[in-house]
């Protein structure tokens, strides 16, 4: 299941860019030929982010074309 590795990489990239700021949502673009199972990716996201600064972050999917798989963007929590 390569989705676990993909989630680890997404976590590392978003954590590096977000720093200490809390993340609300991470959106990934997934094309139909990307060989990525969305339910498996969503499950792995919960496992990988447990106990991290992104534990509360939702993993959302955006439709893409072909074999596209990329982090589309991430949304930070608004400062109180």
Main sheet record: 3 strands, mixed
Global outline: globular
Low-confidence stretches: none
From the coordinates shown, what is the CATH architecture? 2-Layer Sandwich
Compute the number of structural domains: 1
The level of helicity is 25-40%
Mean pLDDT: 95
Strand content: 25-35%
Q: Could you spell the SSE succession in H and E letters?
A: HEHEE
User: What is the number of helices?
Assistant: 2
The CATH class turns out to be Alpha Beta
Distance between the termini: 39 Å
What structural class is derived from the secondary structure elements? alpha+beta
- Radius of gyration computed on alpha carbons: 12 Å
- Assembly state of the chains shown: single chain
- Spatial arrangement of strands, main beta sheet: 2-1-3
In CATH, the topology is named hypothetical protein PF0899 fold
Q: Would you report the number of β strands?
A: 3
Brief digest:
This protein is α+β, with helices and mostly antiparallel strands and 80 residues long. Helix content is 35%, strand content 28%.
What can you see in these coordinates?
With 80 residues, the chain is an alpha+beta fold. It has a single domain, classed as hypothetical protein PF0899 fold (2-Layer Sandwich), CATH 3.30.2320. Helix content is 35%, strand content 28%. The chain contains two helices and three strands, in the order αβαββ. It has helices at 3-18, 38-49, and strands at 23-30, 58-63, 69-76. The protein has a three-stranded mixed beta sheet with strand order 2-1-3, covered by helices on one side. Helix 2 links the parallel strand 1 and strand 2. Helix 1 (3-18) crosses helix 2 (38-49).
